Amino acid sequence: LSAQGSLLYLHALHAAFPQALAPRGTALLSWAPARPRAPAGWPLPTLYCTPAEAGALPSRTAALRVQLLFALRVRALRVLEARLASELHDALAALRTGWPELAQDLALGRLSPGAGLPEDVRGRLQAMLVPDAARAAELRAECAQGFEGIVQRLWPQLQVVVVGTAHGGERLYCDALRQAECKGLPLYCPFYRAAGALLGVNLWPEEPEPRFLLCPDWAFCEFLPCPAEEEEEQQTVLLGELWEGREYRLVLTARPGEYRCRAGEVLRVAGFHKQCPVVEPVRRESQALSVRGESISEERFCRSLCRAVGMWPGARLIDYVCVESALLGASSGACAPHYEVFVELRGLRDLSEGQRYKLDHCLQEDFPIYKSFRFKGSIGPLRLHLVGAGAFAQLREALGSPIPMPRVLREERLLAVIQSTVIS
């Protein structure tokens, strides 16, 4: 990140939450195997209570668990930070299932023997721990009461939850955290990145929906108006030519000497701040389902899926991925090309055939072109599979990279992981 971006973030955070930058008052739950680095700024050693070395462990699961243990030691935590909302969700899922072991580790001041840590790293991390029976007892008492609002109960001085990415597929996890573990706390996404480049900063930490001020000197951005005009070769516009309320495709040249390319991102101009545009990410065009050229975007598919889940009493959507049947080969059956959808739910263990059909029905209602292909038989019936709890955490571990997980699977190795977790 640029120093300017980090300073803007820290200034906005301090202005909204004056106690947030207390020394050792931030816990970082993030996996960065290549290099330990804070997602919301440079790694300030006096700011974080979680050791940087823990985030660089070879195993994502081990990294998040060790960081969670160090975070639990500090009752006076002010900020909980994660590179991705899904990382924070997975760490809190580990708390939900493993709090007795975590409480024992706190009481004894140790790292669990089965944590899968390299011995040299274990020794260095172990030296930082001391027994804390009182904090362990507090953890047991709070977890025994349930997990709604658990974050604020465990850390009563916590002011804000910071996540590096809160749009696209990560939005599901932000919504889930707001409704359950992080209930009552603001979620702040400080930066907007695309194609690996830092493009904008969120100066409004207390607002529920993230919007980003595009900074002119961070990258060279051009914009293609949406929907595309009839012209054969559409002309791009620059920052000063954007209109409030309109949507644009982003064309990016991140650094001098790099190729100019479409970033696959669609932005909506929400307004202006000191003559610079303020944008909201709308969708990623690269994430789309298209077995017959229908091109259903990730964002719109997710909206239909959430509507279908709302028709399943007691169900709450944790995550999902879609696969075009061609990726499964012969195992997808002899019917026409179709979608295979894998979902993880909470509150519901099985679905009837009628409930499973709800998603296909919602897609037909929301997308006339899909309905037309279904009527003609050129797209077969959608197949819905339920996966076990923690299936998507396994998928992110298999991905082997600290980036948002794709919601449209294209890789056979990732498909094999999610198929192994199907329960119905």
UniProtKB/TrEMBL annotation:
GO annotation, cellular component aspect: cytoplasm
Every GH3 middle domain range: 213-284
GO molecular function, one term: acid-amino acid ligase activity
Domain GH3 C-terminal: 312-398
InterPro entries linked to this entry: GH3 (IPR004993), GH3_C (IPR055378), GH3_M (IPR055377)
Taxonomy, superkingdom: Eukaryota
Protein's recorded name: GHDC protein
Organism this protein belongs to: Anseranas semipalmata (Magpie goose)
Gene of this entry: Ghdc
